[in-house]
Design goal:
The complex is a heterodimer. Chain A is about 35% helix and about 25% strand. In chain A, the strands form two sheets. In chain A, strands 6-7-8-3-9-10 form a six-stranded mixed beta sheet, sandwiched between helices. By secondary structure, chain A is α/β, with parallel strands linked by helices. Chain A has one domain: 3-Layer(aba) Sandwich (Rossmann fold), CATH 3.40.50. The radius of gyration of chain A is 19 Å and the shape is globular. Chain A is built from nine helices and ten strands. In chain A, strand 9 and strand 10 form a beta hairpin. In chain A, helix 3 packs parallel to helix 5, helix 4 crosses helix 5 and helix 5 packs parallel to helix 6. Chain B is an alpha/beta fold. Chain B has two domains: about 160 residues, Rossmann fold; about 60 residues, no CATH class. Chain B has eleven helices and ten strands. In chain B, the strands form two sheets. Chain B has a six-stranded mixed beta sheet, sandwiched between helices. Chain B has a four-stranded antiparallel beta sheet with strand order 2-1-4-5. The longest helix of chain B is centred in the C-terminal third of the chain and has 18 residues. The radius of gyration of chain B is 19 Å and the shape is globular. The chains are: A alpha/beta, B alpha/beta. Chains A and B meet through helix 6, helix 7 and helix 9 of A and helix 7, helix 8 and helix 10 of B.
Chain lengths: ~260, ~280
Amino acid sequence: MKYLLSAKNLSKQYIQTHGFFSRKKTVIDALDNVSLNIKKGSTLAVVGESGSGKSTLARSLIRLVNIDKGQVIFDGIDFLNLNSSALKAKRKNLQMIFQDPYASLNPRMKIQSIMEEPLLIHKIGTKLDKLKKIGLMIERVGLHISDLAKYPHQFSGGQRQRIGIARALILEPKLVICDEPVSALDVSVQAQIVQLLKSLQKEFGLTYLFITHDLRIVRHIADELVVMKHGKIVETGKTDIIFQNPKTTYTKKLLASIPGTKKST
Amino acid sequence: MKNNILEINNLKVFPKVDTGNKLVNSISFNVQRGKTTCIVGESGSGKSLTALSIMQLLSKQLELSGKIFFNGSDLCLIDSKSIRRKRGNEIAMIFQEPMTSLNPVLTIGYQIEESIVVHNNLTRNQLNARINELLSLVAIDPERASSYPDELSGGQRQRIMIAMAMSCNPDLLIADEPTTALDVTVQAQILDLLGQLKKKLQMSMLFITHDFGVVADIADDVIVMYQGKIVEQGSVDLVLNKPKHPYTKALLQCVPDALGEKTLMPIDYKKLEREMAAI
C-alpha cells in the first residue's frame, strides 16, 4: 500500500448567520472538493493563510469536524464510516499536535497524568508498563523524568510543545497531524522542535501532515506540499519543485512574503 | 549628538529585591534619527524590558539605573507628568497581540479618538477628520470607525494599533514584535506599511523581534541581545553577513531559509557557553 492516508473530494460548508433577527445567511466553503494523498513515512505540508481551510482539513481527517461530502481512507479503512467504538480504536494510530502549547495542556493536571491519559483511554499496559513508557518518552523528547511531577505552567512554550509531542507519540501512532506546531515559538525554539520532529520521524517511521502558514519551515520538513486558498487546493507537488518553479500567482505571492527575501532579490 | 533621537547609556534593570542578577545588564546603544534599529534576541533576553524601560512602563517590582536620553532629555530623571506628556505623543508603542491591546467594548473610532484627545485640543469636526485621515493612512476604510475590534481580522487590528500610535505624529515608534502573531502574508503587508509610514512621517523606529528574516527586511542597524547583554551591534549588512559573536552566528543558523540551502541548527547552549568563555 503506497498511501497511508488518502482523502477524496472533501467538502465542508459553514453557514454564517447575520444577527439574531436577520434572515440573511452566507455560505462559506471551508473545504471545496479537496483531495490529497500522504505516502507512508513522508511529510506532507498544507500551507495557506488563515481562513484557507487548512485547520478544517486537519480536523475533518480525524473526525473532530464532520464533513458534508467525501471519503477518507486511512490505513486501508474507510475512516469516515466507522462507528464510534471502531473509530476510538483506530484513532490510536492518528494523533494530533496543536498550535498553542499553552491551551492544549490541562493546567490542573501533572505531566505524568497528561501523558498517562491516552494510555488509560486505550487500556494499554499494566501500571508498571505505563510508567516505563512515559519515562522513556519524556526523556526522548528532551525533558527529564523529574518533570513528570510538575504542572504545565512550570514549563516554557518550547518545553510545553515537547510535552504535546510526547503525549501524541505515546500511543505509537502511524500518522501525526501537526497543526502549526511551531508558529507560536521563538525561532531558536522553532529550530529545536523541527529537529526533534525530524529525528522522531526517522526513529519511529512516522508520517506527518504538517499544517503551517510559514513556507520557510516547510522547506525544511516537508517532502510534498499542498497550497490552499479559500477552501480549495491551488497547487500541489514536491516541495523543491514548487519552491523553484511556482505555477500559480497565489503561490508566488506566498513565496514573496517570506521575510528576508526582499533585500536578497 | 543631534543625529541620535535616542541614546541609552549603561541601562540596567533588576528586581527591587536585589538578588544580584540583572535582567538587563549595562547596555548602551543609540537610535539614529530617521533610521530603524532592530533588537533581536530570544525570549528572556531582555529585549522587551529594554523597550518598557524607555517608555518608563516597567513593573513596580523592577528598578532601573542608567541614562535614557530622548531628544536630549533624560527620561529617567523627569517627573511622571512630563513622561505622560511624551508617552503616546513623542514616543509611541505597538505591541505583539493587537487583540489584547484593544478594548473589546469600544468602537475603534472611539479608541483612536481617545489617543488623540489625550494630547490635543481639537473640535469635533477636526477630530473626525483626523480619525478618517489616520484610518486611510493605514489603509482601512474610514467607514470602519464604528466597528468593534472583534469585527476585524488580526492584520486589521494591528493596523488600528498603528493608526493609534501615529495619532500624534511621534518622533519614535517602539514596535514590540508587532508581526509575530500574524500570518506571513499579513506580516509582509504590515512591515511594508511601517516602512512607508516611517518615510512619510520621518519617524525613527525601534523594532523588537526574534526573527532575523524580519530584520533583513526592515532594519538599518541591529542589536543582538543575549541574557540581558548586548553581544553584537552594527549595521544590518555587517551583522547578517559577517556576524562576529558566536551567539549571533548560532541564532542565524536557527532561521529557516526559503532557499533550503542551509541546514536548520538548534542552538547548542553548552558549546555556546564554551565559545563565549573563550572570548
